[in-house]
Fold:
Amino acid sequence: MAGKFLLSDEEWRKRLSPEEHRVLRRAGTEPPWEGCFVGTKEPGTYVCAACGNPLFKSGEKFESGTGWPSFTQPISQDAVTEHEDRSHGMIRTEVRCARCESHLGHVFPDGPPPTGLRYCMNSVAMKHVPQGQPIPLVTE
Structure:
């Protein structure tokens, strides 16, 4: 992972669409089954929509039946961070981009082997980079 990429809220608002800002910077959630990556199976890498940090490989993606793209594990242990989330009357584990601290989704302990985890992500929080193409890491 490249160094941290942190901006002010005003700078994020200039860079992100209103929906991206709501999800990535305000910990929102897109409606189930509406995200563009729910059923995709194309090889490649899913990167943070805010900063380009590589997050998940397409080979770790699986159909969870939840309405959000789901993965068994991140691309590396330092790609994401996990935080306790007590919003909405629940206790969950929030997943954020380790580079820019953007909200990506949540991780649950009900996934398939080998990890038993389900990283349930918002499509709007990610971009897909097709296999063989360079990762467009944001640096400014």
About this structure: The chain has a mean pLDDT of 95.
